[in-house]
């Protein structure tokens, strides 16, 4: 893999390979010293044109755990504020010779453009409403740890599908891994023709979630009612909120965060036993380590990444030795 | 210039529009053994085309004509068509001369085989005063390689609120009126314009788009507007869509208003099947309505946008394969009257950005006929005669004479090599901008020469000319 631009470009074997690597890093995460030297001397650039807590912090920590040098640039306070174009910003920052660029942008296709303009491996950390592949990979990882396999599992994605890049990437990833996906929400928030485009079922009736093994709730932005997508948050919550009555005891609940408490999710389920929301955050770190590893060290291991592979075994990195 | 611009009624030759009239006709021009095709004049055969004193002097038996003090071109295996006319281009002057000027835009037109173009008024600032029109006409008289007609805006500043001084603008030489780039949102303003047309006479060219439908977040936030056709591809990419009904419902409104006011309208750049149905129904009911379609809407679909390449971003957007087929069929049947390029040059800085941020618009003058020839004529989808006819039929809705090859007609013709192959854009463009959605494609057939009213307006660089004597 050269870049991670979208789940739509991946095959199932790519996802499985990243999942296995992530498991290896999870093992590292349980050690006293959680840092490995795999990417020592490599430079990773985090470029965030949109606000982000989880994604930016976990990519930054993932890079540090792999001993890479990390530069994080946020749009606010940077020359982006002064009207610098994306291309000029990339050209400028390429002067540091980054091996990888992690970019989040409000615009679809921004990561693909960066891949065209730069020699670095590019990770799409969210481009507009298009894709958010690292989120989908960590969601798959979280579910695999719980369920072992997604084959034949029924997953419902509930809420504002229209404006959600998470929904698009998850839908493609879940289906690649063998799950059956249904998207559910008010007709105004389900994109036209999504069933044909992405091979899912569409429902406008939340009662149907009784059949789901997993319920994935999407964030509903509060301003959507001003654009007439929903009449009111109250009516939306009455029809589509996931709460303790709608969620069965054996159904798993996911959400990419940040949660609008009391809108798409009721407080009782957010912190309830079915909720995987905290696990998703934990998965985020190891999966993003696996992604950076895949792009920068996968297939072409460097000598200093000690412990790298003998025959058939996946090359799991070993921790840095304590200084003598 | 004032007052002389327009005869009270009836049509006039394209060459009476403003242009430089460069390259004095230095005697005869003979195109020997050319395959002449002019379906409107019933011409389809091999002739020696003799051009003399601005006119097609004769269509002589092949091999019989010798130029008297002039140029002989051996045109065996080459085609001669009536030159094309484009009723919809953007010359970006005044205001955005870094993207196009009258000089470069009309050179591009000549290179595409055009003997005339109409320039839209959505410049910066918009053309909404008589002084603006007069200044542009004067400049075209100095710079334009082919005749240009200038439209004025329908409403002041294109704000959609008050009508421009249409009568005075008409006297100053505005050929028609259009707020192209923007629809006339307000139905009352549209209705007044249609009423006032009975005084002014000139055509109203309409960009049909209901902003309430094409801007999903509401009209007050244009930057959150749709950026591509709403369909399977926009769903995949998570891009805000412009539904087909944003166009067709506006057309339906204006067809009804035109019928009610007994006015005439020209609908610009049709893109959707629903729009074809609306126009067809209007024509059936006897409403005076004409319309145009672009080469890109006839040959490309929203599948091209999957690449998120901003060269495929324009308004109206590339739509589905079903829409494309409806447009091709309507062009064949005559529901769509003519082909227009909507040539819309944009600077590199406006296009080398993420798709959503990129400016709308593609160039088209230099590739229009070759793209249609490659994608529709050679595969047998449309007859060559139909395409040749529609390439110049856009003169009619604007009260201009159709170019003709019949002896005695003004000699505006294009010499076309049907066997040539070329990579679009490989040798650069005559246009100042390069935002072509055909760039890099190998096109079949090439314009070798364009003659406007007896003057050579363009010669393809590698085209070796043979001079008599």
Could you please describe the fold and organization of this structure?
The complex is a heterodimer of chains A (324) and B (469). Chain A has 324 residues and is α/β, with parallel strands linked by helices. Chain A folds into 2 domains: 7-132 and 284-296, Rossmann fold (3-Layer(aba) Sandwich); 133-279, Aspartate/ornithine carbamoyltransferase (Rossmann fold). Helices cover 34% and strands 14% of the residues of chain A. Chain A has helices at residues 12-29, 54-65, 86-93, 110-117, 133-147, 165-176, 194-198, 233-240, 267-270, 277-296; strands at residues 43-48, 69-74, 100-105, 121-127, 154-158, 180-184, 201-203, 214-217, 252-255. In chain A, the strands form 2 sheets. In chain A, strands 7-6-5-8-9 form a 5-stranded parallel beta sheet, covered by helices on one side. A 4-stranded parallel beta sheet of chain A has the order 2-1-3-4, with helices on both faces. In chain A, strand 8, helix 8 and strand 9 form a beta-alpha-beta unit. The model of chain A is unreliable at 300-324 (pLDDT under 50). With 469 residues, chain B is an alpha/beta fold. In chain B, strands 1, 2, 3, 4, 5, 16, 17 and 18 form an 8-stranded mixed beta sheet that branches. In chain B, helix 7 (244-261) runs parallel beside helix 8 and helix 12 (368-377) packs antiparallel against helix 13 (384-392). The longest helix of chain B has 18 residues, at 244-261. The interface between A and B is medium-sized, with 31 and 23 residues.
